[in-house]
Amino acid sequence: MLTRKQHELLMFINERLKETGVAPSFDEMKEALNLRSKSGIHRLITALEERGFIRRLAHRARALEVMKLPEAAAPSLSRARKFEPEVIEGGGAAAAAPALGPVANENDAMNVSVMGRIAAGTPIEALQEESHQVSVPQAMLSSGEHYALEVKGDSMIEAGILDGDTVIIQRCDTANSGEIVVALVDGYEATLKRLRRKGDSIALEAANPAYETRIFGPDRVKVQGRLVGLMRRY
């Protein structure tokens, strides 16, 4: 059973998707539910996701899709469409991870190697050794090699990425401007940020106004992968 606020948010998202095809912004959700901060919206979205009512779409960190509605409202679900965010797109990356592929298990999930911690805040030294494995639903994975990183810091909270989350990474070395990536800076610092290309420079942009955007020359930053999923434990 959903709480009143969970139900209100779910119906608000669903109605906006039916009307416009675009989900409301976090600010609009906050205002609609009369909440004081976006952190309350993050908690409600996480609760709805855990109960199977919504799904965060791969490749777009804040993208949402309504999977089901409370029984009384279920007929309207067929008209709901996916949330295509204006700016924030999926991305995320691991630092210098070895070529490890996922291993299938018997429950439609894959075991993915966790390669250490990644900073969503002040960059930390890149970790490159497997610490353990995590079971990831196959639907969360895209093509190619994958690995996981544990998030440390709060610089990406407005992209729905919180301290302690585990991000699932698709291994790659290129990314489009606007994607969230783990960037390897100067060969030893790894950080989870949104990448922006500005002429010959690369900007690493946080999703938290408390953090400044950092700008580097193209030879100082290497993309190590893209975020394709996120897992959270309570």
Written description of the protein model:
- This protein is of the alpha+beta class and 234 residues long.
- 16% of the residues lie in helices and 32% in strands.
- The protein has helices at 4-20, 26-32, 38-50, and strands at 54-56, 64-66, 103-104, 109-119, 124-125, 132-137, 146-152, 166-170, 180-185, 189-198, 201-205, 214-216, 221-231.
- Strands 3, 4, 5, 6, 7, 8, 9, 10, 11, 12 and 13 form an eleven-stranded mixed beta sheet that branches. Strands 1-2 form a two-stranded antiparallel ribbon.
Low-confidence stretches: 74-107
Helix-strand topology string: HHHEEEEEEEEEEEEE
Report the helical percentage: 10-25%
How many helical elements? 3
Q: Which descriptor suits the 3D outline?
A: globular
Mean pLDDT score: 76
The amount of beta strand, in percent, is: 25-35%
Q: What profile does the largest beta sheet have?
A: 11 strands, mixed
Termini gap: 19 Å
Say how many strands there are.
13
Q: What is Rg?
A: 18 Å
| Helix/strand structural class | alpha+beta
Short description:
This protein has 234 residues and is of the alpha+beta class.
What are the defining features of this structure?
single chain, 234 residues, globular
Topology (elements, then pairings):
Blueprint: H1 4-20, H2 26-32, H3 38-50, E1 54-56, E2 64-66, E3 103-104, E4 109-119, E5 124-125, E6 132-137, E7 146-152, E8 166-170, E9 180-185, E10 189-198, E11 201-205, E12 214-216, E13 221-231
Parallel strand pairs: 4-7
Antiparallel strand pairs: 1-2, 3-4, 4-6, 5-10, 7-8, 8-13, 9-10, 9-13, 10-11, 11-12
Helix pairs in contact: 1-3
